[in-house]
Amino acid sequence: MKITCENIILDTDPRIRQKSEKVELPLNQKDKELLEALLEYVRNSTDEEIAERDNLEPAVGIAAIQVGVPKKLIAVVVPDEEGNVQEVALANPKIISESVQNAYLDNGEGCLSVKEVHEGHVFRHARIKVRGYDLIKDDNVTISAEGYFAIALQHEIDHLSGILFYDRIDKNDPWKEDELAEVI
Q: Binding of Fe cation: at which residues (predicted)?
């Protein structure tokens, strides 16, 4: 299975708001192939040559619902400041703890399923713990995440509940500040 931009559904498609269902573990072959394809999309989307050849938009994460499949499957690949890459391919991810402190991307968020620009700060938790099955490690894991990685995980996990990033932007004051928040 190969995912390209043609497979991605947009926020104009009502399916993007559908709640995703848990998947059975161990993963069946179809779910495993889908999760592998999601991971491959994200890994390849930041390589300019591959992205152009395979018609991929740059991304740090993708959820199965974005290709029209309402299953709790996400892939996230985020480089850190040291040049290392944090990557997960999760089935049934669940946030089990979160910091009180907020964090946000200074320039706002974007999404493969959202073509229209939605400006504003998207407040998320600065630190989270996520539990789920990671296909890369072939094991149940608990992930402690912070910074950009935590934001990307929360963005993708939101998709599983039919929530889009712009739902979290204050309509009356899109660029409002939080002095205690971590700005990324």
A: 111, 155, 159
